[in-house]
Amino acid sequence: MERTVVEARGEQCPIPVVKAKKAADAMTGGGILEVHVDNETAVQNLLRMAAGMNGKAVSEGKGEKHFVVTIEVPADAAAAEDAGECSIMDSFPVEQKIQKNEKTVAAIGSAYMGNGDDKLGAILMKGFLFALSQQEALPDTVLFYNGGAFLTTEGSASLDDIRSMEERGVRIMTCGTCLDFYGLKEKLAVGSVTNMYDIVSALTAAGKIIKP
Prior knowledge:
alpha/beta; Translation Initiation Factor IF3; Hypothetical Protein Ychn, Chain: A; 2 domains; 5-stranded parallel sheet; 4-stranded mixed sheet; 34% helix; 23% strand
């Protein structure tokens, strides 16, 4: 059985996933893919990628800032993703899947809305998220990155509004690199952690992008 080792320690999101996906795609007959990374966020992203190709995966800590994710890549991994069964580029539940050009994505890159006074900007952002949560037709996904990561973590004044959207089926995703940078990883209060690969995939697949 073919075995491929990918060294991705020291690489920032989404490079470990991109490297691993390229290596997996090259293993047309299946095999074992061993990926070395240096953070838990990369581990979780790789496990999601493995699930997307219907492959079994395990992770193991080898030491400080050294994790190994071992993936059993099936022979039909590329076909599974092409069929859209569980692609890392489209992980919506089956009942939520719609044509790519019909998806709406809201991209929140700051805890403030607009430029000027931050106090006013925070008020406007809170109002925006409340108004968004009250729409009859909600976005399929809301992405939070950079300063927007503060909105999905403990202490955010918008948690109730964001949770109400998640309860109605909206996918809430916060950039893992951003959570790490601001020291908020353990304070995430709603939604899931994502990576730049999935953020770009969601944006490029969207028919409409809402950006306050």
